[in-house]
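Please produce the structure of this protein holding zinc ion.
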Amino acid sequence: MEVTDPVCGMTLDRDRAAATVERDGWLHFFCSDECHRLFEAQPDRFVGRTPKTKNSSADSERAKRDDHV
Ligand SMILES: [Zn+2]
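Below is the modeled complex.
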């Protein structure tokens, strides 16, 4: 399963993550110990930066259009 490193924004396979952190019920995966360290230093800077659902705005736009047809 692919996940996004919230620090550097890179996509990685969760099985290959160098570090994992659980915060507020969300799991965050890191490509390297460096990203993990940056996150631990300032978690609030990175939490919420990555979208929780992929393409949610595009999907709702499409749903709206479909409703009108
Ligand atoms: Zn990273």
